[in-house]
Amino acid sequence: MKSDFQDRFLRNKLALAGAIVVAILFAVSFLAPWLAPHDPHEIDLKNVLAPPSWQHPLGTDPLGRDVLSRMIWGSRISLKVGFVATGISIVIGAILGALAGYYGRWVDAVIMRFVDIMLCFPSFFLILAVIAILEPSIWNIMVIIGLTSWMGVTRLVRADFISLKERDFVQAARVIGASDGRIIFRHILPNTMASILVAATLGVAGAILTESALSFLGIGVQPPTPSWGNILTAGKDNIDIAWWLSLFPGLAILITVMGYNLLGEGIRDALDPRLRD
Amino acid sequence: MPSYDEKTSTPLVRLKNVVKHFPITGGIFLRQIAAVQAVDDVTLDIWPGETLGLVGESGCGKSTLGRLILRLEEPTTGEILFNGENILRYNKEKLRQLRREMQIIFQDPFSSLNPRKSVAHIVGEPLYVHGITDRREREARVLKLLEVVGLKKEQMRRYPHQFSGGQRQRIGVARALALNPKLIICDEAVSALDVSIQAQVINLLRDLQQKFGLTYLFISHNLSVVEYISDRVGVMYLGKIVELAPSESLYINPIHPYTKALLEAAPVPDPSQRGKRFVLLGDVPSPIDPPRGCRFHTRCPHVKEICRAEEPPLRELLTDHVAACFFAPF
């Protein structure tokens, strides 16, 4: 079964590209201390806004710090925010979606109306408001992003549950006397993994984007901690004279988000048992 | 009922005036606006060791009847007794124990097996749920079950998609047998299979019946399959049993006009009979709003005034052979 999955995944070139991007990101963030040519916090006032050179391959920022090093360290933030926030949203979404889809009736009505209410909030401004009240720390950001992005997962999981619970293998599980918990978690939920995985990778991409946006606005990851978003802030202020400050973090965000999306779709296609030979 | 002495043995399953209506809701407050009368006032006994066939067109309620016995659906009214006990009063734990006694084999062997579980898991799960948590003991029993249904040892670690339809159905049979049930409900168990595979699975079911003393409720729309395997056959039309008889009696002397029509609709390879058959006209009326009186009166060639007004009771017209018609036999 495993080799089957690998086979089909490796045959998908785009998915492979996505996987490579994600793998590189992982490697870069784990190896940050060794890869970064400079200390990301080292200020060099004689060298502010220096264009790309051999010494500073991606130039320097308004405080003379090395942009490449700051981006390498910033990838850790992206990774952390992406995974923790998505983890939170997946857990909430899967549980609520499972309950709504499996039990139906009023349970479903209550949960899905709650989803509708949450979707009505422009979540970015909700996050802004909450962060304004709480202090903007990376942990707060991860939790807030997680708590405002589970609705899509809930809907996906619920839809899967509604169709799967009528399937004969679920009926068979009921007939052998399996408990509701067993049916939900052992029989139905594993069959929704494909949807959850796709939702998760899209979620990681979304969370990274949201974090960048918050940091860009100055209420995300606080300087001097480097994040792609707050490097962009400096880029915006100096866009006429220092294009490298906007271009490279922007590209990093773009490639990362695309990488996760391609990876997610690749996993979905490879996992789908109906596509197996 | 037939050929069994009612005083000395109790039926394995007894349905008493069982009714199942599925509500149809509508409007903003989801009030009930109508009901699908899937099963309407069915009284039926299933005797230990017999195979009771249940035939009828799709939508006549025969599958719902099976699901009611398994308590996959709760009846609207009526009683269901298993070994003389009313199972509708069972609490969760007693119901769980009851699951050992009755199992089901489904029609579609592609949807009845969890695609993400190996055969060892699928067949072993009933054992696990009922307390055999030691993995080695469970797998030893799974191997025996696979042997019983004619699958190989090596196939235990495989996944459902690696099997053919007939093999999958055997896996479903093995799962149903795992708990040593008394009753197995075969819900169109062979309808999805090729004809040659159908015969194999039916013969397997027969062998297992002898070996383990099983009782079958065999639900199918295929009359010849039912004739082959059943001791008694019930014919359902729009949620009601219209005829119930020992197999030979039903096929040789069908009484109810609907049964006659069904039997004559089955193709006969004899060109001289062409055009002589009585063909049923029109469609089955909707079970949401079934006809008053005899439910078959809209399509019956012998319809009279009383059929539209009153519902015919089941009458014994031949030995052990009952039918719900005012005028039969014709």
Task: Give the helices and strands, then pairings.
The complex is a heterodimer of chains A (277) and B (330).
Chain A: H1 2-10, H2 13-30, H3 32-35, H4 67-103, H5 105-120, H6 123-133, H7 138-147, H8 151-164, H9 168-175, H10 180-188, H11 193-216, H12 228-237, H13 244-271
Helix pairs in contact in A: 1-13, 2-4, 2-13, 4-5, 4-7, 4-8, 4-11, 8-11, 9-10, 11-12, 11-13, 12-13
Chain B: E1 13-26, E2 31-46, E3 51-55, H1 62-69, E4 77-82, E5 85-86, H2 92-98, E6 102-105, H3 119-129, H4 135-148, H5 165-177, E7 183-187, H6 195-212, E8 215-220, H7 223-229, E9 232-237, E10 240-246, H8 247-252, H9 257-265, H10 305-309, E11 315-318, E12 321-323
Parallel strand pairs in B: 3-8, 3-9, 6-7, 7-8
Antiparallel strand pairs in B: 1-2, 1-4, 4-5, 9-10, 10-12, 11-12
Helix pairs in contact in B: 3-4, 3-5, 4-5, 5-6
Fold and architecture overview:
The complex is a heterodimer of chains A (277) and B (330). Chain A has one domain (2-36, 64-275): MetI-like fold (Orthogonal Bundle), CATH 1.10.3720.10. In chain A, 71% of the residues lie in helices and 0% in strands. Chain A is built from 13 helices and no strands. Chain A is elongated. In chain B, strands 6-7-8-3-9-10-12-11 form an 8-stranded mixed β-sheet, sandwiched between helices. Chain B contains 10 helices and 12 strands. With 330 residues, chain B is of the alpha/beta class. Chain B has one domain (13-101, 181-323): P-loop containing nucleotide triphosphate hydrolases (Rossmann fold, 3-Layer(aba) Sandwich). Chain B has helices at residues 62-69, 92-98, 119-129, 135-148, 165-177, 195-212, 223-229, 247-252, 257-265, 305-309, and strands at residues 13-26, 31-46, 51-55, 77-82, 85-86, 102-105, 183-187, 215-220, 232-237, 240-246, 315-318, 321-323. In chain B, a hairpin with a 2-residue loop joins strand 4 (77-82) and strand 5.
